[in-house]
């Protein structure tokens, strides 16, 4: 126990023993084994070196011994300190078995009396431990340490150690502001400015801080902009705030004033870290998170900041901050409610005390909660247990799970929670009563929600659609049919919700979807399996399957198909035969398979027995027909085979025609072909003819014979080889099979192999070639999808039949005017449209006669479609380009397929205008899905005929020529042609090529341009002439229409001119639009064609009206008709008939869209011959008018007694006859040449003549229809001449005393009139011999 009068000195010995012996001290000193940490020992490095030098034993232990010494006299303290400082360490002490080294002895603590208290202070370099400062009273006013660090003075010596401890060094990170401009050189540590600033500032810092206790040094670490911010590190022991402020003042005083240091800008950042904790440790979205900041610095000036958001956090609905000082500790708590992913990041807790800032950082991560569940479920209401489950993808301490439901029906259940597996399940049952058919298809949303202990929530929805189990009702009546008959099965469901409906056989084979249709109704659905022609393959049980998710509703139906030959499979002989009235002829019907049939031959109501004959697989029924058994000589009778099966169903064979003739007319006789008259043509099935048959496999097809002289000659051979005939029969059976899509791949493979072997038979037999085409046509209607292997087999077959050895056979088919080349192309297109490559690489195929390339549209890797085809053997090439901007409109995974054929163009039927085909490729491009958006494809062809004629881009239109196909240029045009190649642009897809028109001048050629100029200028001149004619008629109308004949004549001329004027105007406007490549819509083109047709016809019918009027006035001289009646008849004939013809033509052709030509707005010739609706009436009118003219002129020149006309009548009749006689031949001649240009192969001379004559149509009407009229001339002279001579001339003309130059009697006019007859004397109106007036019927 210490006396209050005494001075207590505490010493610390560091002693090292070389053995592990335990020291026993008889004093109260505390002996502590050395357990200082590394940081504490770093300050005694010199001492450690001495220790190591003195102690070499690896087993030596180090102890720290605190010794308390009390002095009665305070003056003894200084002498003890001096003595201790004089000692030389280490001090070695030897014992019998131990070596002890005293490394150091230091004074640590001195306690003195101060008034009534004992103040225990630490010697320099030592300080009281922090826990003593917290639990003992301190002498704060004399403390030299920073708050929160060690203290230097206590008001009482602790009863139990430790005493003052060796003081720690700290490094303060500080900064101060210089109010000078920042220079970039301060960023460069090697610059002179940087070194100058650093030297001056460090000198001032040392002068200011060297008075601090434990000062070690100061270093400038850098400069920052913002004026100039100086950062530096101060190494010292923990000084008090007062000492720091005083040291800062000395720094300012020591620094040159030019630096303008701001004495209020000092800031210090202590290394003393704040304790920052986060709860919970793993944070999930939605949790309530607490961040707690603890510090021994007793200050409530604490702030929180989110580093990423760079904003100080304030109290809000989601953030709350609580700060307090508790138990000598500053505590601040930040609470984040319902934390989000955006709240993740680094949080900073900052405490500020005077110039010191203390901060701690903590980064938190927010993990999103994901609850996994099926988004949709489909449940059948069949009372089966159903479970809806959800699971958490994160391992969270969930405390509970809740299930909720929302929907129009309430289907409740029970929840099962499996916390260990982080899953929850909701189990329920539902029967038909809970979801009747009215609510079938109702969706209920089930929501599962997980809740954690810290408030996080995660949920997921599952949409459950409840559907009643389908009750199926199937056709109740038993189905029993015979082959060839049709049947249908109706399967009705009472619910409308299903995923799939299909039919399959009892063997599990799905029926091809072409055989059934499915319809959905509001309260149900139905599927109908309909078979038009049943075969034995349809015999069996069929299942109607409605599938909804994994639930299947099935209804079964048995179908019994009884054997009965199909009509097409009954082979008859003869097809047609000649039988002598006194002779006989063998008739027979054969089928491939035997059966229990009753067979008779029927001739009308006469039934003849049949004898059965079996030969290998073929069964024939025969009868020897005796012609003398019937009384039908010189007649043709039809004979049928009638097959009846066991269930009394029957079928009739194709007809056999027997021509009964007298025996003396027969000249040709053959035991197989039969007999016939001269010139008789008959057909026979090839298997019953002289064509050799293979055993067990008869040939197919028909052969045609003609009786020439006394011998039968083969006229046409369409026989099909036995092997190909067998393939054809299999193909016909396949398309009737319920499982045709499954059989198709194998059949295509066998077909490809067989055709390759049978190339010689195909090249020598048009019938075999036609059969192969029919096979491909049949098969192309089967598949909904074609894979790469199937397409390869198809193209291999096509390559054979398009080979050069087969081209001669194709020519025979062309001569027979079949459309099988178009049929082949259509088949190949259908196969290409069904091609689906899937995930396999795009298919590419290259053979001598066909090449193919394809591409699958991928929206993620869209690129321009570009393919090139080169056929070196044919020296032809071409390429196809579709820009990717047009491919964007196609459905993803669509297939674009292009095929090129070097020989196909030669075998396709020629263009309807017989344009010469340029030798080029035919390229077919198809897309697997329909194109709904505007489309553009560019193709380049090698032009093997670069010289002569117009090049046209065409496509094969399957709808032309009554659906037999033809070349069409609609939607295509030539973009570029440099002689060797032609680039075509089209707005649709199909098969394309180019045509060369050798006889039609190229529009870009000199002749083409010349014809265009002639046409435009000529028609324009004609329009002006017609307009002038109408003006003249208006001017002279009153002067020249004083009698009925003149009135009607000028009415006809005016309507002729007006009709031709309107027709020419329509014609030139439409031609200008099309020649400049402007798009004219189809409707506008139809309207223009209709009016051009109507008004051109009106021209001719008004000419006919003029002729008929002339004939009427001469034949019916004494018959009187009013002017209004004549005019009504004239207008009905002039406009009514053309209107009727035009409307009938439009109605008959436009519904099929073949009213106009494809590239010109004029009547169609190629498809419907609609042009005849103009040509025939026009030519008939020309003939009629010329005939009338001849009759009239003859009548005038040789009048009958009493038929002598008056002078005015005669003049008018002559004018009419002259007009008809001149205009009719000219107009007829013009349009005669015009019609010749329509036909293919027309010589260029006809184009030129038509263009020239067309120029003068209007001029002809002006001159010969108008100005040639004497009265018109006189009226014009009278109206426009102001001279006296003109007046006298008119007078003398009216009196008949003079003869004008254009009068009927003038020498000049007489020459023209001689063409139609001579001038006759003028009759007198009053005949003195009779004393009566003779009325002129032409006078009004």
Automatic annotation (TrEMBL):
Domain G-protein coupled receptors family 2 profile: 1011-1269
GTP-binding found in the keyword field: no
GO molecular function: G protein-coupled receptor activity
Signal peptide boundaries: 1-21
Gene3D superfamilies attached to this UniProt entry: 2.60.220.50, Immunoglobulins (2.60.40.10), Rhodopsin 7-helix transmembrane proteins (1.20.1070.10), SEA domain (3.30.70.960)
GO cellular component: cytoplasmic vesicle; plasma membrane
Keywords for this protein: Cell membrane, Disulfide bond, Glycoprotein, Membrane, Signal, Transmembrane, Transmembrane helix
Domain spans labelled SEA: 166-273
PROSITE patterns for the chain: G_PROTEIN_RECEP_F2_2, G_PROTEIN_RECEP_F2_4, GAIN_B, IG_LIKE, SEA
Residues annotated as transmembrane: 1013-1040, 1052-1073, 1093-1116, 1128-1150, 1170-1193, 1213-1233, 1245-1270
Membrane topology: Multi-pass membrane protein
Pfam name, any one: SEA
Subcellular locations according to the entry: Cell membrane
Sequence similarity: Belongs to the G-protein coupled receptor 2 family. Adhesion G-protein coupled receptor (ADGR) subfamily.
Entry protein name: Adhesion G protein-coupled receptor F5
